[in-house]
Amino acid sequence: MSVLKCPVCYKDLKKITYEKQEVDICESCGGVWFDREEMLNVINGLFSKNLIESESVSEAYGKSALASKDLEQYKRYCPRCREKMEVFNYSYDSNVFLDRCPNCKGIWADRRELEEVGKYIKGNPDVDKYAEVLASELKKGSRLSGGKGKAIAVVIAQFYLVAAFFVMGFEGMLRMLMFLVLPLACIFFGGNLGSLTEVRFSLSFARPVITKPTPGFLVVFGGWLLLLLPLVVYLVEFFAEM
After folding, report:
1. Is residue 101 a part of any domain in this protein?
2. Among 8, 98, 117, 141, which lies 20 to 30 A Cα-Cα from 232?
3. Are residues 137 and 235 in the same domain?
4. What angle do CA 160, 162, 168 make, to 5 degrees?
5. What percent of the chain lies above the pLDDT cut of 90?
6. Looking at 123, 151, 182, which one is the last position of a domain?
């Protein structure tokens, strides 16, 4: 098997065993090549030994997501199959930009980027704890996700379907039904949906996974915003024409 070359400085990569996972490291620039799924295996090993620091409050909650297109782009080629790699913001908002091969799905991490990804996944446990307490208190006092709230959501959905049928016919009712699937799912199953991790926003592997759970009440609240959106749009247009 040929020796892999570093995509940054073109030196030979050295295969080592790190956290019980074989990876390829560049001893010159400090970058690491991970074949598919290897990076998370290494990070999980670091978590088990408590070798990853927590994010600061500003790191965890005070930054805005950047777009990879706004960064200076470098041409880097996959050490495994020589395809040009794509730059992506890990999990959309981590602001840790990694290089991924579109063919073999391997990932190149520059020096310290592995640690930054680990810190992002870990977050800030103390702040997360307070957020969970706040979420639980808000959930206790919220009626949006209770039985009455769900019944109201069903009534609104039925009203939309009837209105769509009379205005646009059967095709319009089907389109409205497709629209209602997401908000109703959020309202009825907010807790379950919020707890999902390791899923993608689309079928494309280029989309990063969701790494952190979302408080259920936020999912329910988002569902209500989406459900009421057509009504708000109608009212705005109605009063604008008066």
Report:
1. yes
2. 141
3. yes
4. 90
5. 24
6. 123
- Local structure of 164: helix, strand or coil: helix
- Cβ 110 vs Cβ 8: under 8 Å: yes
Helix (H) / strand (E) containing 233: helix 216-241
Q: How many residues does the chain have?
A: 242
Check whether residue 112 and residue 26 sit in a common domain. yes
Sign, CA torsion 63/49/205/176: negative
Helix (H) or strand (E) segment spanning residue 33 = strand 32-34
207 contact partners, CB below 8 Å, separation of at least 6: 200, 201
Q: What is the pTM of this model?
A: 0.54
pLDDT of residue 8: 94
The whole-number pLDDT of residue 163 equals 87
Classify residue 6: in a domain, yes or no.
Answer: no
Helix pair 216-241, 125-141: axis angle to 10 deg: 60
